[in-house]
Amino acid sequence: MDGKLAVIGLGSIGSMALWQASRLSDSVVGFEAKVPAHGRSAVGGDTRLFRLLYRGNPSYYPILQRSQRLWAELREQAGQDVLLRCGGLFIGTEDGPYIPRLLETARATGAEHRILSREEMAERYPQHHLRPDDVAVYDPHAGALRTDQAVTAAVAAAQANGATVLTDTPVDGIRETADGVVVTSGDRSWTFENVIVASGGWSRKLLPEALRAHTQMKRVFLSWFVAKDPALFSPERFPIFIRISGERSMYGAPSVDGATVKATLDGRGKPVPGFEAISRDFTPEEIAETTETVSEFFPGLYPNIVRTDAFPDLFTTDSNPLLGRLEEGSRIYCATGFSGAGFKMASGYGEIAALEALGKETVENLDFLRPSRFTT
Ligand SMILES: Cc1cc2nc3c(=O)[nH]c(=O)nc-3n(C[C@H](O)[C@H](O)[C@H](O)COP(=O)(O)OP(=O)(O)OC[C@H]3O[C@@H](n4cnc5c(N)ncnc54)[C@H](O)[C@@H]3O)c2cc1C
Q: Which residue's CA is the closest to the ligand 1 atom numbered 26?
């Protein structure tokens, strides 16, 4: 045996799983194809939105709370503001597809929130140009996660606890045997008691065919704009936002460099055959729609896209992650398929993966995330 647990992929989730596993065992090894937090993984693009107010299955709420606690711990440990708590604004029409479902989930979970009138919005957040039928809901616990800092801090904490990190070591195969899992990279191989697959958009090649059929790599893009008055878009003044107004939708974060603001079309992940097909440039249609939306929503931003980027993420057919063992008794644990929504809960998912892969119990009600939902 070369160790109790191997974590394959030290990006958003794998870094957190390694950190948590290193607290429980002195025999954990992380494999990373490049380096942790490299800019072409789903860690790229500076920030990700965190919020407790979440539209969708209320069973995510305990994972969000667990993640909030762990982001605070990571902040303490690293001495760095990995989560800028700037609040969050969610904007849409009162009878549209977004706000009623958001409020319904808030009622089911008890997530703290406040509805803001148009007058309050105009006074407190003049950056947003609202439509007459728009309303806004505020989440005081929301913020912007500094992705590269968070992942780097988690890997450093794991190493400080004794974890081994192998960079530039792409895993090309995992094979379960009677007493362990054989991990191979080129002509090298290792055997571990258990393995966590956390290789993000690239995970398909390590998954069995039955799960591959339910997943695809998608290209998810980001865009940035220059603010006319940067102070108005600082974390102190400008909460993260998601806005679905009629046919237009956009989300974004405050400026973290004092000059540019992230504002991006929402829900535009497109399937790609592989990583090589992910263009960092926008198509003419993407440029046109992004520019028109920013022109309408934010009069305080110059409507020229000054930076674009795009990254892979693994999407499942039901948009819920694959979190759990391949099947009961398997030594291979999946922590992938986060479907464009995983970073806010990366610390929580990482802790659940580490605990469960090392044979410990965690929260209940995770059946909707288990890989077996697709295979049995
Ligand atoms: C543009 C964009 C915006 C997003 N916005 C948000 C948001 O605002 N809020 C939110 O919560 N979520 C958001 N998400 C989703 C979130 O970022 C992802 O769901 C999450 O980061 C996925 O993490 P991961 O660990 O699965 O993948 P990654 O972070 O990509 O990590 C995978 C790692 O595995 C490594 N690897 C791959 N193959 C191998 C191999 N064979 N051997 C060894 N290592 C390997 C890679 O190099 C990489 O480092 C967004 C995603 C994108 C792309």
A: 200
